[in-house]
């Protein structure tokens, strides 16, 4: 392959990323074979769990081969690149690669899928289909994080809805059909604007003599970085195309206007998945009504697809509009932070899964605040803006670990008590001290206790965002306090006080449950105590990304 210096294939020639994306699909084929052979369900579950180790191993091998410090031509180097012409007529390439923005999320996906499969031990109906859909969802999410051509990026983005929809609809709770339909429609509808935008961008690039869906090339053009064979930046190319169509005669000759329309089309698509207020209303229903395994993957990984999309597309494609509207994005983030926190507080006597779901809205609001803070105008230098992006990446991983653990434990609690409601519980710690201890650690990791991963993410988000958006950052502190209160009250309702209601005692964590949670919580502790390796993964790419925001763009 004849590639620019910022795209580097695997030195050994092995298509590691293709193997990674295809590995869950091979697992699906094996599950189908097990169904034909009429193997018992326990064997199928054990085999499915064992197979999730294959993507995990491949992700680890990719991590070992990844150089987080590599930069070239004004960006973090995209590594292990695989690029093959796919549809020559419209210049679609099979283009995979990984950089500092995607590597942490690839690892998170591979780590959390086995937890979701273990949670499926409680599933007794259509086990083969359930496990196959979990693996299909894993393949779609992994593909999304490594696809660098919009054609495949969008296919993986949309296709992830299919297994998630069927998991919620077929194995969820009483309102599962409503929740699944709402989730599907929200995400699909939000994607339409982004799809239309990319058709316009492609036509504009064709007029410029470089028709492409290459996300890296388009991102470089958006940032004003050179791309061989193209003259000008993405904003000027888009404006010239719209000017030729006569659109500027109707709307005015304001390049920032068209960048802004592009930015909001991208933002809405990803804000729905990230559950930014006011696009968040699907989330409590989907998380609460879905089966435990689906809730784990939706909260731990799928919600991060929205934030990754903003880092990959919104900031590099439309930096001028992102900077101009950063205060508006921050305002939406803060409203989500506060609304999520009070939503969780309102569920302390209600549904435990809804409570956890509302805390996710709160935490994803911090990620949105970090993205806005990195883009905002101001005197802040590269270090502060890089801190915001680093904080967002750490927060996504930390939230994935802790929220996945909380949903797993909520499912274990329901198995023992037969209820999702917190009212009427109490005093269960006496009979299940290990359960209480493990859930307490997951809870403290989620609320950001120093020494655990959540604290690191929030600390760097606040440090970075304060430099450019101090007012909104100060308001976001309200969410920290209220969310902590909601989670502590949840713990109190379940485990502390006198034993009330039914049951008065529950079975303590079984060895399988304990050893499922132990690695997840150990990771959270390790990141909290020594976050360097995780932060190093994205630091170079983040530092290169925010360079453009150190100067005023929107003037």
Extract low-pLDDT stretches: none
What is the 3D shape?
globular
Measured on Cα atoms, how large is the radius of gyration?
Answer: 23 Å
Q: Termini, distance in Å?
A: 40 Å
Q: Characterize the biggest β-sheet.
A: 3 strands, mixed
The chain-level mean pLDDT equals 90
- Written as H for each helix and E for each strand, in order along the chain, the element string is EHHHEEEEHHHHHHHHHHHHHHHHHHHHH
Q: Which structural class do you get from the secondary structure elements?
A: mainly alpha
Helix content: 55-70%
Strand count: 5
Question: Helix segment count?
Answer: 24
Determine the strand fraction and express it as a percent band: under 5%
Strand order of the largest sheet: 1-4-5
Description:
There is one protein chain. The chain is mainly alpha-helical and 555 residues long. Helix content is 70%, strand content 4%. It contains 24 helices and five strands. The protein has helices spanning 16-36, 41-51, 53-65, 103-119, 127-146, 150-159, 161-171, 176-207, 215-222, 234-245, 247-251, 255-274, 282-289, 292-302, 304-317, 319-324, 326-345, 352-375, 382-417, 433-447, 453-466, 470-495, 511-529, 532-545, and strands spanning 7-8, 71-72, 75-76, 78-87, 92-98. The strands form two sheets. The protein has a three-stranded mixed β-sheet. Strands 2-3 form a two-stranded antiparallel sheet. Strand 2 and strand 3 form a beta hairpin. Helix 9 crosses helix 15 and helix 19 (382-417) packs antiparallel against helix 20. The longest helix has 36 residues, at 382-417. The radius of gyration is 23 Å and the shape is globular. It starts with 6 loop residues before the first strand and ends in a 10-residue tail after the last helix. The mean pLDDT is 90.
